[in-house]
Design goal:
Structural class of chain B: alpha/beta
Largest interface: A-B, 25 and 36 residues
Radius of gyration of chain B: 22 Å
CATH superfamily of the largest domain in chain B: P-loop containing nucleotide triphosphate hydrolases
Number of domains of chain B: 2
Number of strands of chain B: 14
Radius of gyration of chain A: 23 Å
Order of helices and strands of chain A: HHHHHHHHHHHHHH
CATH architecture of the largest domain in chain B: 3-Layer(aba) Sandwich
Shape of chain A: globular
Distance between the termini of chain B: 36 Å
CATH superfamily of chain A: MetI-like
CATH topology of the largest domain in chain B: Rossmann fold
Helix content of chain B: 25-40%
Strand content of chain B: 15-25%
Structural class of chain A: mainly alpha
Shape of chain B: globular
CATH class of chain A: Mainly Alpha
Number of strands of chain A: 0
Oligomer: heterodimer
Largest sheet of chain A: none
């Protein structure tokens, strides 16, 4: 053994030990999922029913009604005629090119995923803003959720819940929830100190401060979080298709396997169209929320 | 003026990881610098004792870092003290429970902030109504009740504007209306006019003095500006390094400054506008000449005294009764700046 062996050989666990370690982890997780898989699945049943119901609703509704509702929402959010026109044209193109049903499925899962992320993410962000310790604990978890390759957490999710809508929804949420949590936390922490002190000085209770001062003042940031969450959820559509979520991701996946260029491109562009519509509508709504900060067009 | 509204007794505030542990050192007379060096704690307030009479404007003044904003935040307990008492109407604010403190803040003491502390997502009318809404009054009713204060501070017509659309002076009027709307007897004003331009500041001082003439609130006013303090204060307490170094009648502080620090402070003021006849007059002596009010300042009195054939004037009180007299020489002497021993080593520079 030469003296420099230490520098040239990487210190490595023995092959057998390593194999046993991996096996141990695998089998204990498998045991865990055998034991609890069903009850965890049961826990998510209400979400599943809601998702299925929403998807059926979107599919069963006459197409002009769907477009009308989407356009109405786009108008309420953005108050921009250009966004409305763009929305109508995109949806007609989507329908004409035979992607209507997949688009409805995608809309359904995005709606449910976003609702879920907001319902969990905003309260979590508020708690984080209250406690520095909690912030220090949650921030690294969010970092992991955003950076770990999606395929890696697909494995345990599929082991636990199998293939289908619920595991797809959970994967989407894991990826999409960090921005709403972060920006809620940030928004509340950035609320001007004097505005809060004034609330204190006039004897506001904790909930009066939270709901009447902190959340309204943090709303533009919270809304930026909602926007980011929707965008990230959309970008997970193809990966979710891998584990059996219906929608625009399925034909994309099929075209990757079979080298269908046109099919892949069209469905990909449909996802882009949805993303642009969601983004512009939520952004201009968010901008209108903070109009009062700049002192224009009022009174 | 006689009854006390607020009594601050032996109040200490020390900032740091464990203030109680070093309180003893401070009480034994350790200085701010020594405390920081030896124990790593910052002395905020040191043995403050101030009596604040009802229905008057009490000014607490000091330069930045003197602890004045810390002190005013103890009155409604936005900052917790390390030791001491804050007795308002016979009750110690510092020993109140959470609910009681909230009631105190809602009903008894309202506050105006240096940077206004307005809620930018609310309109002027909603901001003014805020204190009432916190008390549980419905928004529409609260707006109705606070409307007269919005008008009183000169913001009629701006009810539906947002704070960002208003100038600094107008924003602070909103702050004032908000504080007045709760009908609290005590008004805490933390450098309320310091962020404003000089002209606007004088304007706001007039607004405050005009309001005080009818409302007779107990006002605690923090400022770093001596001219402001002298203009509006019925009494002044001067703070330095967290301790009170002189307090009393403004006239008394000008005529008998307690130490070099205060001498330095008052040397640049316009004495003609600040010193009043009652401070300089010969008590009881009456002369041939015009009758001047005892609260008249030297600048206003100068011409009248100089024109008097006897080069002197009588001084009368508010009811018109003669209380003394003053000569031209006295007026001129009063205008001149006293000798100042400047102290180049002074720490506050």
């Amino acid at each position: 053994m030469a003296w420099y062996d230490f520098f040239t050989t990487v210190p490595e666990m023995e092959r057998e030990g390593l194999r046993d370690l991996k096996k141990g982890i695998d089998s204990s997780f498998r045991d865990f999922s055998r034991e609890f898989g069903e009850s965890i699945e049961g826990f998510f049943d209400p979400v599943l029913y809601f998702l299925v119901w929403l998807e059926k609703l979107f599919l069963a509704a006459p197409w002009p009604v769907v477009i009308l509702v989407v356009v109405a929402l786009a108008w309420l959010g953005s108050r921009s005629i250009w966004i409305v026109v763009g929305t109508i044209l995109s949806f007609i193109a989507i329908a004409y090119l035979g992607m209507w049903e997949d688009t409805m499925s995608t809309l359904a899962i995005i709606s449910v995923a976003t609702t879920l992320c907001i319902a969990v993410g905003i309260p979590l962000g508020i708690l984080m803003a209250r406690s520095d310790r909690l912030q220090a604990m949650i921030t690294p978890v969010l970092d992991i959720m955003q950076t770990i390759p999606a395929f890696v957490y697909l494995i345990p999710v599929v082991m636990l819940l199998g293939i289908g809508k619920v595991p797809g929804l959970i994967s989407v949420c894991i990826y999409a929830i960090p921005p709403i949590v972060r920006l809620t936390n940030l928004g509340i922490r950035l609320v001007e100190k004097e505005a809060l002190e004034a609330a204190d000085a006039f004897g506001a209770s904790y909930s009066q401060k939270l709901f009447k001062v902190q959340i309204p003042l943090a709303l533009p940031n919270i809304f930026a979080g909602v926007n980011q969450t929707i965008m990230m959820a959309l970008s997970m559509v193809v990966i979710a298709a891998l584990i059996g979520v219906a929608g625009l991701g399925v034909p994309v996946l099929r075209s990757v396997q079979n080298q269908y260029l046109a099919l892949g491109l069209m469905n990909g562009l449909a996802i882009v169209a949805l993303a642009i519509i969601f983004d512009r509508v939520t952004q201009s709504y968010g901008a209108r929320l903070q109009k009062h900060r700049h002192g224009e067009n009022h009174g | 003026m006689a009854d006390l509204k607020i009594q601050i007794k032996n109040l200490y505030k020390i900032f740091g990881p464990n203030p109680k542990s070093v309180l003893k050192h401070v009480q034994d007379g350790m200085s701010k610098a020594e405390l920081l060096e030896k124990h790593g704690h910052v002395l905020g307030l040191k043995d403050i004792n101030i009596d604040i009479p009802a229905k008057g404007i009490s000014v607490i003044m000091g330069l930045s870092g003197s602890g004045k904003s810390t002190l005013i935040r103890h009155i409604n307990r936005l900052i917790e003290p390390t030791a001491g008492q804050m007795i308002v109407d016979g009750e110690d604010v510092l020993s109140m429970g959470k609910g009681k403190l909230r009631e105190f803040r809602r009903n008894k003491a309202s506050m105006v902030f240096q940077k206004f502390g307005l809620h930018v997502h609310r309109t002027v009318a909603e901001n003014a109504a805020y204190g009432l809404v916190v008390k549980g009054v419905k928004l529409e009713e609260a707006k109705k009740q606070s409307q007269k204060w919005v008008e009183r501070v000169g913001l009629a017509g701006f009810e539906n504007h947002y704070p960002a659309q208003l100038s600094g002076g107008m924003q602070q009027r909103v702050g004032l209306a908000r504080a007045l709307a709760t009908d609290a007897e005590i008004l805490l004003m933390d450098e309320a006019f310091s962020a404003l331009d000089p002209l606007i500041r004088t304007d706001m001082q007039d607004v405050l003095l005009g309001l005080q003439e009818e409302l007779h609130k107990t006002i605690v006013f923090i400022t770093h500006d001596l001219d402001e303090a002298l203009r509006i204060g019925d009494s002044i307490a001067i703070l330095r390094d967290g301790a009170v170094i002189q307090q009393g009648d403004p006239q008394d502080i000008i005529m008998n400054p307690a130490d070099d620090y205060i001498v330095d402070f008052i040397q640049d003021i316009n004495r003609g506008r600040v010193v009043r006849l009652r401070t300089l007059m010969n008590q009881g002596v009456s002369v041939e000449g015009p009758a001047l009010d005892h609260d008249m300042n030297l600048e206003d009195a100068l011409q009248a005294v100089a024109n008097s054939p006897s080069r002197a004037a009588n001084v009368v009180d508010g009811s018109g009764a003669s209380v003394g007299s003053i000569t031209l020489d006295q007026v001129i002497a009063g205008l001149s700046r006293p000798e100042v021993v400047t102290n180049p080593e002074a720490r506050y520079r």
